[in-house]
Amino acid sequence: MTTNRLLEGFAAGRSSIGAWCVTGSPHAAELLAVEGFDYVCADCQHGLMGYDAMIPVLQAVARSETTPVVRVARNDTGEIGKVLDGGAEAVIVPMVNSRTEAEQAVAACRYAPEGVRSFGPVRSGLFLGTDPILVNRQVACLVMIETITAVGVADEICSTSGVNGIYVGPADLAVSMGMVPSFGSSSSKEHEDAIEAVRLACRRAGIIAGIHTGGGEQARARLDQGFDMVTIATDAALLRATARAELALARGAGDAGSRRAGAAYS
Question: What is the pTM of this model?
């Protein structure tokens, strides 16, 4: 049986850098995994895939040392349990705005008596095993704070028993603050202050602080700021940025330095 390398890294004080698969392409996910990203997330919320397409993505990641992560479409007990049965070792749950909603996400990730996850490890049993007690320790529950409402109760959400970490969604946070989302740096000082407030709440609770970024430069800045988990970009954004830059070079209208991953839409 394997262990959750993402959680092992955090326990050892190491930060993690990841990428997201939104195209639903197993080969794209495989390419990201073999490049050495710490995790690859199959995005079932905004990504172009359902459950049947998600499984081949997780299978492609399994050939590597990369941790398979899934963002579910909603805070739904059945959906969370199903992606865990499919082999996700960490689940990112969007739009969590209260302790009650965080508790619901945690319960969906854990077998009884700690939660309500139904036992049916069809694929996950090949990796994390089938012992409910041990599996409960290996599955990571990451809830998203991505509204100004959630920022206001960040300490309550972060201190929820069983929450392993918070994943900040900068774009939805900006929208909730009446701002146009920025795919680079923060939209405003108020936006940046809200992000920092969440990071500090994570520190007080002793849990993982994660965030979506617009590329390697911003990811490095977030790590230096004190975030533990940063996503550089999506497969689609990386493909588009490289295609744009190379096309501009071929037409004599750009340079290789013009690449920017962008798409910090989470």
Answer: 0.94
